[in-house]
């Protein structure tokens, strides 16, 4: 199977990359696509990136004690 590039800017970019790398246009396309695939596969999902933060947050000790109720807040504001 072959790919035909009809877009002038894309063709120009492929040929420039091929010239810079000393490759054929087909090899330049293959190299670029393989590198982009590797980058995409290496990306972590949002859930994977957030997992360490969630673990750290879950490990934080939360103060215990009685729940704050109306009397507690009234006492804070000087009302009895």
Structure description:
- The model has no long low-confidence stretch (mean pLDDT 90).
- With 80 residues, this protein is mainly α.
- The chain has helices at 8-21, 25-42, 46-59, 70-76.
- Helix 1 packs across helix 2 (25-42).
- It has one domain.
- It contains four helices and no strands.
List the helices and strands and how they pair.
Elements: H1 8-21, H2 25-42, H3 46-59, H4 70-76
Helix pairs in contact: 1-2
Q: What is the structure about, briefly put?
A:
This protein is an all-alpha fold and 80 residues long.
Q: Mean pLDDT across all residues, rounded?
A: 90
As for the number of domains, it is 1
The SS-based structural class is mainly alpha
Give the overall silhouette: rod-shaped
Q: How many strand elements?
A: 0
Model regions low in confidence, pLDDT < 50 over at least 5 residues? none
State the end-to-end distance. 83 Å
If helices are DSSP runs of H or I spanning 4 or more residues, what is the number of helices? 4
Helical content (DSSP H or I, runs of 4+): 55-70%
How much of the sequence is in beta strands?
A: under 5%
Major sheet description = none
Please provide the ordered H/E string of secondary-structure elements.
Answer: HHHH
**Rg of Cα set:** 29 Å
């Amino acid at each position: 199977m072959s790919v035909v590039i009809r877009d002038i800017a894309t063709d120009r970019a492929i040929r420039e990359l091929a010239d810079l790398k000393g490759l054929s246009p087909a090899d330049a396309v293959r190299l670029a696509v393989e590198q982009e695939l590797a980058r995409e596969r290496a990306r972590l999902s949002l859930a994977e990136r957030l997992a360490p933060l969630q673990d750290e947050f879950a490990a934080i000790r939360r103060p215990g004690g009685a729940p704050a109720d109306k009397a507690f807040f009234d006492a804070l504001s000087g009302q009895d």
